[in-house]
Design a protein that fits this description.
With 446 residues, the chain is mostly helical. The chain has a single domain, classed as Ammonium transporter fold (Orthogonal Bundle), CATH 1.10.3430.10. 68% of the residues lie in helices and 3% in strands. Strands 1-2 form a two-stranded antiparallel ribbon. Strands 3-4 form a two-stranded antiparallel ribbon. α9 runs antiparallel to α10. The protein is globular and about 60 Å long. This is Ammonium transporter. It is found in: Cell membrane; Membrane.
């Protein structure tokens, strides 16, 4: 068959473009995007009671879309642009074609990559988006959806961009030498802290939902968890900004730590509860992924094993012992335990970087003060602590201010009405995951 296509001469690729790096970076970004949609969308829909499946999934779906528009209009440059303050860049849009086609450059830190700015913008966006999606796990099953719609762009602008610029964009924590390879602080500690604080201000679920909160679809949870685990290859493997040996090291260390953490958490469940728990294994998987994130490309395989051992045990104690005995955790209704799986695991991983970072790994990641205590750089331990304290403090203050602004200035309730809480998806979105004949049946079976 004859073709009607005309010959089109492809433009010459610029000298700085490395096709392999660009292809890997876009692949890594797509893997991270899949962690949010469908990964956490599916996980959230399965782990909640059936009457909350649609609302929980939709909170994640909305956040992904809202973050992207804010990101390209002002937030990317606030996080990775020219410095405006020691902890944030100057906001601005990145939607012009001449910007998208030029070489990726982080101007404050002086980092360049061999792929276009458009690739960098998308890669950094998926990290920003998943931070809000993770945080949603603390607010599920009672947060007013309108309040969530307002909260997402405000928190992205006033909190996430500050952490990202301070640690990744060339801000004061980067200059201090804090190591956060792929977001243990920027993403997980911030979302875990903000999730816990936000859960306090929003208020708890209905008592009946807290007492009986059995998942409606365990297999859906496992599918979502599997997408999370696999997608983390892009999460950590993409952060050298190149298809480099360091990317391979980050990927294998990520999987080693995750497997070790899952096995450790399951072992703790067997010792304490006398049976292995499926949701416990998922939690152990998540804490392993979180804890290795700040360290993935700068530690050895042995370091990854130790990090996995700690991430499978310390957050387990936090969730199963402290979480059940301390009054604070009964007052604050962190629906999915985001504080334990992300904040505690993020702090643990960040601290362990200070101990186990190697000179070789640090130099490969262009860290000027390389290595941790294991290689004679004891200073790195307290530097990591300083970084964690800043992220915790900033998120406590700004998450509180944003939610109080929404509640008292905008006069938008943070929590759903009691009637909506009783019914769930049908009342909020006019649709349920499962269509039942009678509304009363939906209430009784929820």
């Amino acid at each position: 068959m004859a073709s009607n296509a005309t010959n089109v001469t492809s433009p010459t690729a610029p000298a700085w473009l490395e096709p392999g790096d660009n292809a890997w970076q876009l692949t890594a970004a797509s893997l991270v995007a899949l962690q949010s949609i469908p990964g956490l969308v599916v996980l959230y829909a399965g782990i909640v009671k059936r009457k909350w499946a649609v609302n929980s999934a939709f909170m994640a779906f909305y956040a992904f879309a809202a973050v992207l528009i804010c990101w390209v209009l002002w937030a990317y440059k606030a996080a990775f642009g020219q410095q405006m303050l020691p902890f944030v860049g100057r906001p601005g849009a990145v939607v012009a074609m001449d910007q998208e086609l030029r070489q990726a450059l982080l101007p404050t830190s002086g980092v360049t990559a061999n792929f276009p700015l458009s690739t960098m913008v998308y890669f950094q966006f998926v990290f920003a988006a998943i931070t809000l999606v993770i945080m949603a796990g603390a607010f599920l099953c009672r947060m007013n959806f309108l309040a969530w719609m307002i909260f997402v762009p405000l928190w992205l602008t006033l909190s996430y961009t500050v952490g990202a610029f301070s640690l990744w964009g060339g801000g004061f924590l980067a200059k201090l030498g804090v190591i956060d390879y792929s977001g243990g602080y920027v993403i997980h500690l911030s979302s875990g802290t903000a999730g816990f604080v936000g859960a306090y201000w929003i208020g708890p679920r209905l008592e009946r939902d807290r007492v009986d909160f059995r998942p409606n679809n365990i297999l859906s949870v496992l599918v979502g968890a599997g997408i999370l685990w696999t997608g983390w290859n892009g999460f950590n493997g993409g952060d050298p900004y190149a298809a480099s040996p360091d990317a391979g090291a980050a990927v294998i260390n990520t999987n080693i730590a995750t497997a070790m953490s899952l096995l450790t958490w399951t072992g703790c469940d067997i010792l304490y509860y006398k049976k292995p728990a499926v949701l416990g294994a998922v939690n152990g998987m998540i804490t392993g992924l979180v804890a290795i994130t700040p360290a993935a490309g700068v530690v050895t395989g042995w370091g990854a094993i130790i990090i996995g051992l700690v991430s499978g045990s310390l957050p387990w104690v936090s969730m199963n012992i402290a979480g059940k005995k301390l009054h604070l955790f009964h007052v604050v209704d962190d629906c999915l335990g985001v504080f334990h799986t992300h904040a505690v695991a993020g702090v643990a991983g960040g601290f362990l970087v200070g101990l186990f970072a190697t000179v070789e790994g640090s130099l490969a990641f262009a860290i000027t003060n390389p290595g941790g205590a294991i290689d004679g750089n004891g200073r790195q331990v307290w530097v990591q602590i300083v970084g964690a304290l800043f992220i915790i403090g900033w998120n406590i203050v700004w998450t509180s201010l944003i939610l109080l602004f929404i509640k008292f200035v905008l006069r938008v309730p943070l929590r759903m009405s009691e009637a909506d809480l009783l019914i769930g998806d049908d009342a909020i979105h006019g649709v349920s995951q499962y269509v039942l004949n009678h509304l009363s049946s939906d209430i009784s079976l929820a």
